[in-house]
Design goal:
The chain is α+β, with helices and mostly antiparallel strands. It has 21 helices and 20 strands. It folds into 2 domains: 187 residues, Gcn5-related N-acetyltransferase (GNAT) (Aminopeptidase, 3-Layer(aba) Sandwich); 248 residues, Transposase Inhibitor Protein From Tn5, Chain A, domain 1.
Length: 609
């Protein structure tokens, strides 16, 4: 009689309820796993025989701190690289000799790679606690764990340490020989860094000079007679002040008045004929200039300059697009279902398009200034922006805004408002790809997406922990056949995408769940589910890393500047400041602004002046 075949794997999403229910009935601690969780099931000949759960490491363990010998700062940074075996349950009907140690060995063999796939970082050490009154820890000893000591009988509850008197044995096992060196090292070792493929800019190749020259292309609305301060210098002063944290016209004027002669010389500011010294434009001059300026022209110049840093500055022309519904379905020789074809290479660069309302900038008729912008997914830099005319909506801005960019092989993501046949056809004519949201405004498309994706298995999943919550995302895809594409009459549609999201608390209890649907012209041979799921998620870059920063860091929503082009011009300067800081490596914009504010020379150096 052959011995049963033992295997260990992470549970599937649909098995979560069974996993939790089984632990509740057979494990004395129940099903509560905390932190960055991995749930495994061990199977013998296809039947569940054991359940294993890992979560985040304990915050403080005296024995471990003595072993690792790290500082408090290192502990907070490196604790994520230790996994805590929070649950281990051999099911009653499958108990046999050596099963526990065999399950542990198989689980630990794959644990680090599974953590890296799910939580985007490896683990180099595993710890666990056993209650001496209940268990001797024999299976851990057989799996090469070492008992380091016992706890002092304290537990952490609601953020406080409470003495419960139940001392536990502390066990640990290193998953790498150099694990302790990695954990106590002064700086992160490459093993501990995020090794996913990303499109980050090569900062050594960036040329952040030439902004002052570029600003010279903005048309000056003033009459030539009586001009004292040149427009490029006024805009450069406003940019410098914004980079140093100015959030209003008054603050820009204050910072301009404090600029020393060295800074004014580098800005090529006006020389006063009376004193012979350089003088900065006054706040009233800056205010009048930003009100009178052609804000759309300023946007075009500034965003073209940023685009040269990110997209090599290849600007194209807006061309008319005629939609021929008889020739929408391209590549007639494609197969009905190409799910077995794999994509080659890395992810395509992508940009997100979305609109933002300046809440404090009310026009004379009571309506607010509404700006549509295009932001790169990776760098979170704004490369295009336009004002939406009060007599229309942002749909009409789509083509003119994107038409100024070289879109070849770029992926454009947008919300359901822009899921329009004309928009899809335009993007395809420019050599771009699209991932567009599908909602009730396209009922036929939404109904077909739901039918096509019903019952589809999860093709890719990702998990993140932060900001007091855990978020799980599960991506399913369905190929759009030639027959279906002709029926839908949506240009070049190749796949439907469904993203099911769960938001949980830190105990991994589901607080909310939703499913979103998308359509894309990328076939399975061009983009695997992981890339599509990444594009969908990174579309929120424009909200989280651009619009949110303008609101929270620059206090944009409370700005009441409302006359002429000033509201849009200030938004452009904020986009410019954020983009520059992103390109030179600042992830936290508030921190970057503080760093700039300490010394004006830092800002001038950054602007190439």
């Amino acid at each position: 009689m052959s011995s049963p075949t033992l295997s260990v794997r992470p549970i599937r999403p649909e098995e979560r309820a069974r996993f939790d229910e089984t632990l509740v009935h057979q494990h004395w601690l129940g099903a509560g796993l905390v932190g960055e969780v991995m749930r495994y099931v061990a199977e013998e000949d296809g039947e569940w025989c054991a359940l294993v759960g890992f979560g985040s490491a304990a915050l403080c363990v005296k024995s471990r701190e003595e072993l690792v010998s790290w500082s408090d700062a290192q502990r907070y940074l490196r604790l994520r690289y230790i996994a805590n075996n929070q649950r281990f349950c051999i099911l009653d009907e499958h108990r046999r000799k050596n099963l526990a140690s065999e399950v542990l060995a198989l689980t630990l063999r794959r644990l680090s790679s599974d953590f890296e796939a799910r939580w985007r970082h490896p683990v180099v050490m595993v710890e666990t606690f056993t209650d001496p009154a209940r268990h001797a820890g024999t299976c851990y000893k057989a799996s090469n764990f070492t008992m380091l000591g016992t706890t002092s009988g304290f537990g952490r509850r609601s953020g406080r340490f409470v003495h419960h008197g139940e001392k536990k044995a502390y066990w640990f096992r290193l998953l790498r020989r150099d694990a302790l060196d990695l954990l106590r090292a002064p700086f992160d070792h490459p093993v501990l860094t995020d090794r996913r493929h990303v499109h980050a800019p090569d900062l050594n190749r960036l040329d952040l000079s030439g902004l002052l020259v570029a600003l010279g292309d903005v048309p000056d609305p003033r009459k030539r007679r009586g001009i004292r301060h040149d427009l490029p210098q006024i805009l450069a002063v406003a940019t410098l002040a914004t980079l140093r944290g100015a959030t209003s016209l008054f603050a820009i004027g204050e910072l301009a008045a404090e600029l020393p002669q060295e800074a004014l010389c580098r800005l090529d500011a006006r020389i006063s004929p009376r004193t012979g010294r350089r003088v900065a434009p006054e706040e009233s001059t800056i205010r009048r200039m930003l009100k009178a300026i052609d804000a759309d022209a300023l946007d075009r110049v500034v965003n073209a300059w940023i685009a040269t840093q990110v997209l090599c500055g290849r600007l194209g022309q807006d061309e008319a697009v005629e939609i021929d519904f008889n020739t929408m379905v391209e590549d007639d020789e494609r197969e009905e279902d190409d799910d077995d074809v794999d994509a080659d290479g890395g992810f395509r660069q992508a940009v997100a398009l979305d609109a933002k309302t300046l809440r404090g900038a009310r026009l004379e008729d009571g309506r607010k200034v509404h700006l549509v912008s295009v932001v790169t997914h990776e760098e979170a830099t704004t490369i295009a922006q336009a004002n939406v005319d009060v007599k229309t909506n942002e749909i009409t801005v789509f083509r003119p805004l994107l038409g100024s960019l070289d879109l070849a092989d770029l992926v454009v993501t947008a919300d359901a408002l822009h899921t329009q046949r004309e928009h899809a056809a335009f993007l395809r004519s420019q050599g771009a790809h699209y991932v567009l949201g599908v909602k009730e405004n396209r009922p036929t498309l939404l109904a077909q997406a739901k039918r096509s994706l019903a019952g589809r298995p999860v093709a890719y999943e990702s998990h993140d922990r932060g900001h007091g919550r855990i978020e799980h995302r599960y991506v399913s895809v369905a190929t759009i056949s030639i027959k279906m594409a002709k029926k839908l009459r949506f240009p070049s549609a190749r796949q439907f995408v469904a993203v099911y999201r769960e938001r949980c608390d830190l105990a991994d209890r589901v607080e909310s769940a939703e499913t979103s649907y998308y359509v894309t012209d990328l076939s399975r041979s061009e983009a695997l589910p992981e890339e599509l799921g990444t594009h969908v998620r990174r579309h929120w870059t424009i909200e989280n890393r651009s619009h949110y920063v303008r609101d929270r860091t620059f206090d944009e929503d409370r700005s009441q500047v409302r006359v002429g082009g000033a509201p849009q011009a200030l938004a452009t300067l904020r986009n410019l400041a954020i983009s520059i800081l992103r390109l030179v490596g600042f992830e936290n914009i508030a921190s970057g602004l503080r760093w700039m504010a300490f010394d004006h020379r830092r800002t001038l150096d950054l602007l190439g002046l």
